[in-house]
Amino acid sequence: xxxxxxxxxxxxxxxxxxxxxxxxxxxxxxxxxxxxxxxxxxxxxxxxxxxxxxxxxxxxxxxxxxxxxxxxxxxxxxxxxxxxxxxxxxxxxxxxxxxxxxxxxxxxxxxxxxxxxxxxxxxxxxxxxxxxxxxxxxxxxxxxxxxxxxxxxxxxxxxxxxxxxxxxxxxxxxxxxxxxxxxxxxxxxxxxxxxxxxxxxxxxxxxxxxxxxxxxxxxxxxxxxxxxxxxxxxxxxxxxxxxxxxxxxxxxxxxxxxxxxxxxxxxxxxxxxxxxxxxxxxxxxxxxxxxxxxxxxxxxxxxxxxxxxxxxxxxxxxxxxxxxxxxxxxxxxxxxxxxxxxxxxxxxxxxxxxxxxxxxxxxxxxxxxxxxxxxxxxxxxxxxxxxxxxxxxxxxxxxxxxxxxxxxxxxxxxxxxxxxxxxxxxxxxxxxxxxxxxxxxxxxxxxxxxxx
Length: 452
Ligand code: ZN
Prior knowledge:
Elements: H1 3-6, H2 18-32, H3 42-51, E1 58-63, E2 67-68, E3 71-72, E4 76-85, E5 91-94, E6 109-114, H4 115-118, E7 122-123, E8 145-146, H5 149-154, E9 159-169, E10 172-180, E11 187-193, H6 200-218, E12 225-231, H7 235-243, E13 251-257, E14 266-269, H8 277-287, E15 293-296, H9 305-308, E16 317-321, H10 343-362, E17 365-368, H11 382-386, H12 392-405, E18 407-411, H13 412-419, H14 423-435, E19 439-441
Parallel strand pairs: 7-8, 11-12, 11-13, 13-16, 14-15
Antiparallel strand pairs: 1-10, 2-3, 4-5, 4-9, 6-9, 10-12, 14-16, 17-18, 17-19
Helix pairs in contact: 2-6, 2-10, 6-10, 8-10, 12-14, 13-14
The chain binds zinc ion.
């Protein structure tokens, strides 16, 4: 392996034709947005098939009734139509206008009833009277409608025809999986939930960024293996963990991708251990973005990191979002729509994920072959390589830090943290020093393994 291929250049997180990548992600979001998704059913299947155009994932179908740890894969839910008509025959609530109007997983019903009988089945938000809330009833058989508070208040005391043409019967739960093998079996798990209906940031943005991430990684050399999961929230990750327990030891790093399209600052929720390599890699990238960001400790709430970081698995999986769940007013309402998601935010999220993965790819440990005093860098052309640009002092410091700390014990992440320099500069310095035979790579054993 030559020096240049041993460590990829510091700007490998850049995207080719990033304008078209942002446009492609926005177009995918617009195509997926109207589909009524749930934790099972044809909307979920259809969405995954659309994403198969970007990432050739395999679709798995798990039968209803399958026991997965303490849970059971539920019956499959499909919906064709739903409405509430007033006494005059006008639709006052219409699933065709927004799939959020229907309580997700509603059982079928066709009945005429009074307003007093209907109201206990209506959900609204008095604080945001124009927005439709998003509600589900996956594990408690029920029916209901979600409406704006203004609509609720406008309903006269009268008779209403309630119609839900849905089915809830034994079928399958669908999920998508895509494995991109690398030189080693060490895996990075990238997981996103795909079960929300017309909600854009949570979590169409995650589905689209994850799909594009897979596409970008498939075109790059890979030391690590990447496993992408496109799954319904909670039951999907529980099912995948239950069905794949023997191979879980391969997972060395992971990220749950969600809420990555809004214009808010990046927020990283650490893995349960809090100091895993993924936690350190994300922190190094966010610290050098030149933007405000927030790092929060793990808590057993949120998205599928709850399952990956459950006590019995305790996987090194964090979650990199922009504004996280529950922290933006539009969350789980009809206002989490395509207007909330910005192409620039999607594109920057994708670039940031690629930069984090680049740290994991290049976080190697080296031994300085000339440890007694500094080697004469000028004689080896290393000062010339630095050039006279404005970042020349930083690049020189990176060379000196890598030489000083490469004792076969400290990784490039250790050196980036200690020096305060960007990982890209440290990796670039290591590449140059390796090319000048001033470093020798410390093999940890896993690199020599054969890919599956
Ligand atoms: Zn959600």
